[in-house]
Amino acid sequence: MTPSTRERIVSESLRLFADRGYAATSVAEIEAAAGLSPGAGGLYRHFRSKEEVLASAIREHIERTRRQVSEVLQHATAFEDRPLEVRLRMTCQVGLAKMREEQDLIRVLFRDLDQFPHLVAEMREGIVNPLYDGIALWLGRQPEFEGIDEDWPTIAAILGGAVVNYWLANESMYEPPSRIDEERFVAGWARLGLGLLHLDRTPAT
């Protein structure tokens, strides 16, 4: 499906904000990138201001995240025939993919959103917290954990925070921490998850 003019404005503005910064990106540049005549006011036929474009981009990402979390939770036990460690690896890979998907929005968050605390709050409540809550709910729904009284939100914060830190370090330093590649990180993350949940029953020798 061909994106609408409004969708092009939102996606191109977010890309430009991530590359150049919010303040350094002009309305005319957004219009040109979206296929409109630069400086002709085409953006204002869809949005009242550049800030409203940014807010719309954030809210579209919030809505997409809401759908994604809902879909994951609907299929939380879809792979229960596979070992738990495999499912944990899959969850870690999904988390890293989500970070890549949101990379432009994350760049804008760190570069510019201190100017817009209300938008930071929307991101926190609409994207960040739902993702951590989703991890906690997913963990609690795994068959191995049935009947286990565990602090899933705290464990989700630890495991989810590790994914965020790994991706951010790789993104900002241009290589992963200690040069640990993604495959090793995913494997270690899954083992950490098993250890935190007291399910690693193989004693050290």
List keywords for this structure.
67% helix; 205 residues; 8 helices; Arc Repressor Mutant, subunit A; elongated; mainly alpha; Tetracycline Repressor, domain 2
Q: Would you give an account of this structure?
A:
This protein has 205 residues and is an all-alpha fold. The chain has two domains: 1-47, Arc Repressor Mutant, subunit A, CATH 1.10.10; 57-196, Orthogonal Bundle (Tetracycline Repressor, domain 2). Helices cover 67% and strands 0% of the residues. It contains eight helices and no strands. It has helices spanning 5-20, 27-33, 50-74, 84-101, 103-112, 117-140, 152-173, 182-196. α1 crosses α5 and α7 packs antiparallel against α8 (182-196). The longest helix has 25 residues, at 50-74. It starts with a helix and ends in a 9-residue tail after the last helix.
Structural class determined from secondary elements: mainly alpha
Helix count equals: 8
Shape: elongated
Number of strands: 0
* Sequence stretches where pLDDT stays below 50 over 5 or more residues: 200-205
Strand count, sense and barrel status of the largest sheet are: none
CATH class of the largest domain, named Mainly Alpha
The average pLDDT is 90
User: Which value, in Å, is the CA radius of gyration?
Assistant: 20 Å
What pattern of helices and strands is seen along the backbone?
Answer: HHHHHHHH
Strand content: under 5%
Supply the CATH architecture of the largest domain: Orthogonal Bundle
Distance between the termini: 58 Å
